[in-house]
Structures are given as structure tokens and as C-alpha cells.
Amino acid sequence: MYGNNKSGLYALLAGTMILTGCSSFLGKPYVFPQPDEPSATVRLKYTRGTSLDAITFTEKGCYGEATSLNYLSDDFIESRVAVGKELVLTYEDVVAGTICRIPFSFTPQAGAVYTVKSGFWSESKPGILPIFNYDQHHCGINVVKKVGTQESVEPIQQLRYKTGLTCLRLVK
């Protein structure tokens, strides 16, 4: 009797989430610029397990939706992006079951090409007893900006997730 009517449970759950401000149903995808609009290009060398997503936010500033950037046939993830306003991206790579996830932002300039570069390293850390050392693994990114023939490292703002009862935010 109780297990047969799941539609009522789903409606109740959806209504509760909407009333409490949950953004997963209200998020809008990232809007890529039209061919005639000013744009910049963001790219990342694709390897198995990597992704690069543009993040949007609700009117309340909560996490709205992640839109994957396009994968091109020449082994790059590459997309045109809007310029003159903050772009929030999340880089993710899964290697041997370990997830590296880095949300970051910067403001793209018209005509520039931004290449996201990643790296991984580990450090040996002492354990409680000298024979119980362990490796601590790290990952990081930088963004190289190219305008014409000029290349420079683009300053980025690394972000972190801040969870609340009804809202997931990315903060500096």
C-alpha cells in the first residue's frame, strides 16, 4: 500500500526543494557567445578522466548548473566564452580513483586564448612512527593567456565550495 504510490513522494520532495531554495531544478546552462559576439577561447589538453565545466549561479548566488565545455577531435576541450565578466570554471581530473577538482575564476579578454594546464605531485610525510610514512598527493592548475604572440600567466582566483542548508556557493 505505501510503496506503490511514489509519484506523491516525488512531488513532495520536489516541492520541498523548490520552497527551500534548492537550485538544482532552477539552474540555467552557461550561455556561449554567438558567432558575431566578442569572445575568448578556453582550452584544455584532454586526457582520459578530465573535464572542464562552466558554472552558472541562480539569482540568489547559489550554484545553478555546470555546463561542459566542448571536446574537439584534436585532443582538446575547447570553447568560446563570453568576455568582460567573471567566468567560473571547474577543472576535474580522475586518476587512479583519485579526484582532483579545482573551481576557479578569471575575467576573459576579447580575442585571447586561455590554456588551462594541470600538474600533479606528491610529498612523503612522516607518520606517527618513522616506519609509517605516507605520500600526500596534490594537484594544481595555471592558466596561460595568449594574445597574438604574447603569452603570460593569467591570474586566477581559486574558489572553494561553501555549503549551506539550502544553497551551495563558491567563495574566494
Protein described:
The termini are far apart. The protein has one domain (6-171). The chain has 172 residues and is mainly beta. The chain has one helix spanning 6-19, and strands at 40-45, 50-57, 63-68, 71-72, 76-81, 87-95, 98-106, 113-125, 134-147, 150-154, 157-158, 160-163, 168-171. Helices cover 8% and strands 51% of the residues. The model is unreliable at 1-24 (pLDDT under 50). A six-stranded mixed β-sheet has the order 4-5-1-8-9-10, with no helix packed on it. The chain has a five-stranded antiparallel β-sheet with strand order 3-2-6-7-11, with no helix packed on it. It is globular, with a radius of gyration of 20 Å.
SSE blueprint and pairings:
Blueprint: H1 6-19, E1 40-45, E2 50-57, E3 63-68, E4 71-72, E5 76-81, E6 87-95, E7 98-106, E8 113-125, E9 134-147, E10 150-154, E11 157-158, E12 160-163, E13 168-171
Parallel strand pairs: 1-8
Antiparallel strand pairs: 1-5, 2-3, 2-6, 4-5, 6-7, 7-11, 8-9, 9-10, 12-13
- Which strand-content bin applies to the residues? over 45%
Alpha plus pi helix count: 1
Q: Determine the fraction of residues in helical runs and give it as a percent range.
A: under 10%
Low-confidence stretches: 1-24
Main sheet makeup: 6 strands, mixed
Distance between the termini: 50 Å
What is the SS-derived class?
mainly beta
Number of domains: 1
Biggest sheet strand order reads 4-5-1-8-9-10
Mean pLDDT: 82
Tally of DSSP β-strands? 13
Rg calc? 20 Å
Compact description:
With 172 residues, the chain is mainly beta.
